[in-house]
Write a sequence for this structure.
């Protein structure tokens, strides 16, 4: 996510029943039942209970097919897709895997040319994760919480409404290029002078994901723009409504 030279700025729920990704063409399964080489712990709280317990619940982002498709595409670009398995949430820069998701590992890893402390599905640098976790009140580094932090970064870049349109455009990708170095700018280059994924490859991956995700869910309500200001009474009431029966259908 962030530059391996540490010169970069901060890096950057699917609706009930969808996993963090869609392996191959298999039908999606609940995250807890999804096979992964390394088992992640969500104890003692379930992912839903943990999210509902957040002190700033008004900032919990719903995860629609459109948003999940973007999240999956970020993972694809960052090299943490791992065929849609939760293993990608444990990957450190360079490909090593961490055992615990209780916190960001904050561990510098080195390759032949670079050194970086990026970690997780969205390759969060420690200072980026600390900023997002503080803003959202995230208590751990679990997959569902990483998704929330990534969407927070998308919103912070002013790109969430574009993402909700369900179309990966060069403009949307360019807005996220300062957050994820693997995304190209409008000129087709990395914002940080690093290797990038071609836009055509990103769009192909995104489109295929979105078709599968929409087919798995069927018709769904479009995602609502984030309420602003989050501290207002209207936004707090809307947040309580979002935590109603629909959110308890499952994670």
């Amino acid at each position: 996510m962030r530059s391996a030279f540490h010169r970069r700025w901060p890096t950057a729920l699917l609706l009930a029943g969808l996993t963090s990704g869609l392996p191959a063409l298999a039908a999606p399964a609940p995250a807890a039942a999804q096979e992964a080489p390394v088992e992640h712990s969500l104890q003692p709280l379930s992912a839903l209970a943990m999210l509902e317990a957040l002190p700033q619940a008004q900032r919990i982002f719903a995860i629609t097919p459109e948003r999940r498709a973007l999240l999956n595409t970020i993972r694809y670009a960052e090299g943490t897709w791992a065929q849609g398995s939760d293993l990608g949430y444990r990957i450190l820069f360079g490909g090593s895997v961490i055992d615990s998701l209780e916190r960001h590992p904050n561990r510098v890893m080195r390759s032949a040319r670079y050194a970086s402390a990026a970690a997780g599905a969205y390759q969060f640098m420690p200072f980026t994760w600390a900023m997002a976790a503080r803003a959202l009140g995230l208590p751990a580094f679990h997959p569902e919480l990483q998704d929330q932090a990534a969407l927070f970064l998308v919103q912070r870049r002013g790109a969430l409404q574009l993402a909700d349109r369900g179309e990966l455009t060069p403009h949307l990708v360019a807005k996220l290029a300062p957050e994820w170095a693997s995304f190209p700018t409008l000129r087709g280059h990395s914002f940080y002078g690093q290797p990038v994924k071609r836009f055509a490859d990103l769009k192909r991956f995104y489109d295929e994901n979105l078709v599968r995700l929409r087919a798995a869910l069927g018709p769904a309500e479009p995602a609502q723009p984030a309420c602003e200001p989050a501290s207002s009474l209207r936004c707090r009431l809307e947040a309580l409504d979002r935590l109603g029966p629909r959110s308890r259908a499952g994670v």
Notes: The longest helix spans residues 199-217. The radius of gyration is 17 Å.
